[in-house]
């Protein structure tokens, strides 16, 4: 047991299963399945977390009925064909002493994708619309309710026969069981609606039948939101009453928060970095005080010290640390062995985990692109002929390339022109509510130290240096600078780029227009920062709404902040020019002029331009030149780090 975390590494017995520690990977969609069954890529993904020391892995939702296909890549457990894959998955996790449960699931009205471009028929207790996905469901008839109940039970039996240790009944986030619980969504007047007892009947019948069919050792738990954080959602008092009523049929309750039914409440499904770590724990503590069975909790628990404190406080018995394990599958092992300083801490950016899911592609991590690609990058072979490798640029791309190449046995030196590592990430962390993004620098810097990379600061790589040193290979990661597009200029209005604002190099004056070309964090973040300093800010963006390129939960959280700050957003406009006090914009669809008067400063968040000079200077001197990150093409930190991995693995 790790002395530093005495509570986190205590075992926990739940019916027939023993968790070796209190660290859980919660059920989360990976977008890795391709045909509704467990495939080799999903086995490799979960096996990496089991090998890294997780005590419990809960496998992503499995549909229990044909009408449960809420995405095109959901696992299905509605026929025996699912069992072979689940058996391989269970065996892979059990080989590392990891307990494994599977989620059984029906979304009800929360259908978020189309099948072959067609709107899907959604089913719910009543024909009450879902605001977020603009779905008007069909009310379930008695026969279909019975089919779905039987489907839950049959799915649990299949997962037990496949070798899993338990199942988790998903009643969280406004999905079908929660829709039956909710008197504002369940308007039925039969035995499944009306009274509180009737609204519990759907869940009671499922849980009782699963317990009867699976015997004494099989674990049956329930995931539920502590409240749905929505005016039409379940309240905390209602949820506590539900948990008390269903406790005799359960072995544990897994507490989360929010609902899929509205944009504001859905943010909590995977809360971004603006939310405090462990913020759901107090609600879990209130539920735990009502029950005698174990209570799990999840919600931005990213570090072992946070989880240990939650368990020590009595708020919960197990902590869901899903994104922490996506970012660093070996987090439990490092914490238990006394190497917590080596943990690659999740920064809750949501870009490659839930962000990938929402794009319909396999999940990964911007800091650890090996995640989801375990079959390719999980075990990189050492090189037979080590080479002398120079890396020019100490941003995320260069740092990851240096680490990867060094781990494979190359002699790697990283040169950074500035006095600190980090590149643009050092600026990104200066945006409001984005300080945690700086963790990518801290994490990569520690990896560089562990890999034995030589780091030389305040030293740009030049053609003269290369001619003198003659390295075997050069990785160019010199990044980018702010791009200033051509526009009409008249008068002497102050014009600044986003970097100058973040560095506080100018006084913006009273009224500011921020022109946003990318639709990402930068333009809205600059607008938010200036508004917080007391400036009158307008945000003009080329996209349909501010932050349109960001993952939805991050975007919606940010849009809420802009609304509360009363920042005027002008969508679908591009910069045309300015005079002394007027910014001239142009509608991107109609080409009609749009003007903003009485402006003191125009701020440009208009993308970046690659720094490419070193690539040309190195030609003819270094035999192997690789260009990565923004030097290759201006993109995001995710592409930069992936480029570093890809090139570091190939060189």
Automatic annotation (TrEMBL):
Its cofactor is [4Fe-4S] cluster; FMN. Pfam families: Oxidored_FMN (PF00724), Pyr_redox_2 (PF07992). Keywords: Flavoprotein, FMN, Iron, Iron-sulfur, Metal-binding, Oxidoreductase. The keyword Flavoprotein applies. It comes from the Bacteria. Coiled coil: none annotated. Residues 8-338 form the NADH:flavin oxidoreductase/NADH oxidase N-terminal domain. GO terms for molecular function: 2,4-dienoyl-CoA reductase (NADPH) activity; FMN binding; iron-sulfur cluster binding; metal ion binding. Residues 388-614 form the FAD/NAD(P)-binding domain. InterPro entries: Aldolase_TIM, FAD/NAD-bd_sf, FAD/NAD-binding_dom, NADH:flavin_oxidoreductase, OxRdtase_FMN_N. GO terms for biological process: fatty acid beta-oxidation, unsaturated, even number, reductase/isomerase pathway. In the N-terminal section; belongs to the NADH:flavin oxidoreductase/NADH oxidase family. This is Oxidoreductase.
């Amino acid at each position: 047991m790790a002395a530093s975390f005495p509570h986190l590494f205590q075992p926990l017995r739940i019916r027939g299963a023993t968790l070796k520690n209190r660290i859980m990977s919660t059920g989360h969609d990976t977008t890795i399945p391709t045909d509704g069954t467990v495939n080799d890529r999903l086995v490799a993904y979960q096996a990496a977390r089991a090998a890294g020391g997780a005590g419990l892995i809960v496998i992503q939702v499995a549909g229990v009925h044909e009408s449960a296909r809420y995405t095109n890549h959901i696992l299905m457990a509605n026929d025996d064909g699912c069992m072979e894959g689940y058996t391989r998955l269970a065996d892979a996790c059990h080989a590392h002493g990891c307990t494994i449960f599977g989620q059984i699931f029906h979304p009800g009205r929360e259908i978020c994708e189309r099948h072959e471009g067609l709107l899907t028929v959604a089913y719910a207790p009543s024909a009450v619309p879902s605001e977020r996905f603009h779905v008007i469901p069909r009310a379930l008839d008695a026969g279909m309710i019975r089919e779905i109940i039987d489907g839950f039970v049959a799915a649990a039996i299949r997962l037990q026969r496949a070798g899993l240790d338990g199942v988790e009944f998903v009643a969280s986030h406004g999905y079908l069981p929660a829709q039956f619980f909710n008197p504002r969504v369940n308007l039925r007047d039969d035995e499944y609606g009306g009274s509180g007892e009737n609204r519990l009947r759907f869940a009671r019948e499922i849980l009782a039948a699963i317990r009867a069919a699976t015997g004494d050792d099989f674990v049956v738990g329930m995931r539920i939101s502590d409240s749905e954080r929505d005016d039409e959602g379940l309240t905390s008092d209602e949820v506590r009453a539900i948990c008390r009523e269903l406790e005799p049929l359960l072995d544990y309750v897994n507490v989360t928060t929010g609902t899929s039914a509205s944009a504001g409440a859905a943010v909590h499904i995977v809360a971004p970095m603006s939310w405090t770590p462990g913020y759901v724990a107090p609600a879990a503590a209130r539920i735990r005080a009502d029950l005698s069975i174990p209570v799990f909790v999840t919600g931005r628990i990213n570090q072992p010290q946070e989880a240990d404190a939650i368990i020590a406080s009595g708020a919960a018995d197990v902590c869901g640390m899903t994104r922490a394990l996506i970012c660093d599958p070996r987090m439990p092992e490092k914490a238990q062995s006394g190497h917590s300083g080596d943990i690659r801490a999740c920064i809750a950016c949501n870009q490659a985990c839930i962000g990938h899911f929402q794009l319909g592609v396999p999940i990964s991590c911007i800091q650890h692109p090996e995640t989801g690609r375990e079959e390719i990058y999980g075990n990189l072979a050492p090189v037979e002929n080590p080479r002398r490798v120079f890396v020019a640029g100490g941003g995320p791309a260069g740092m990851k390339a240096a680490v990867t190449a060094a781990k494979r046995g190359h002699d790697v030196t990283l040169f950074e022109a500035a006095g600190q590592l980090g590149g643009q990430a050092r600026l990104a962390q200066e945006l409001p509510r984005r300080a945690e993004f700086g963790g990518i620098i801290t994490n990569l810097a520690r990896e560089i130290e562990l890999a034995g990379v030589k780091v030389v600061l305040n030293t740009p790589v030049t053609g003269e240096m290369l001619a003198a040193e003659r390295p075997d290979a050069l990785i160019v990661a010199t990044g980018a600078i702010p791009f200033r597009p051509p526009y009409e200029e008249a008068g002497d209005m102050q014009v600044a780029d986003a970097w100058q604002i973040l560095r506080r190099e100018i006084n913006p004056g009273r009224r500011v227009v921020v022109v946003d070309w990318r639709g990402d964090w930068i333009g809205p973040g600059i607008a938010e920062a200036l508004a917080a300093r007391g400036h009158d800010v307008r945000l003009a963006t080329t996209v349909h709404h501010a932050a349109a390129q960001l993952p939805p939960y991050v975007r919606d959280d940010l849009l809420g902040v802009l609304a509360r700050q009363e920042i005027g957003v002008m969508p679908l406009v591009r910069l045309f020019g300015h005079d002394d006090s007027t910014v001239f914009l142009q509608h991107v669809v109609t080409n009609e002029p749009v003007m903003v008067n009485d402006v003191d400063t125009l701020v440009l968040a208009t993308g970046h331009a690659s720094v490419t000079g070193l690539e040309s200077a190195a030609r003819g001197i270094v035999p192997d030149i690789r260009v990565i990150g923004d030097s290759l093409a201006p993109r995001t930190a995710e592409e930069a780090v992936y480029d570093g991995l890809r090139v570091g693995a190939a060189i």
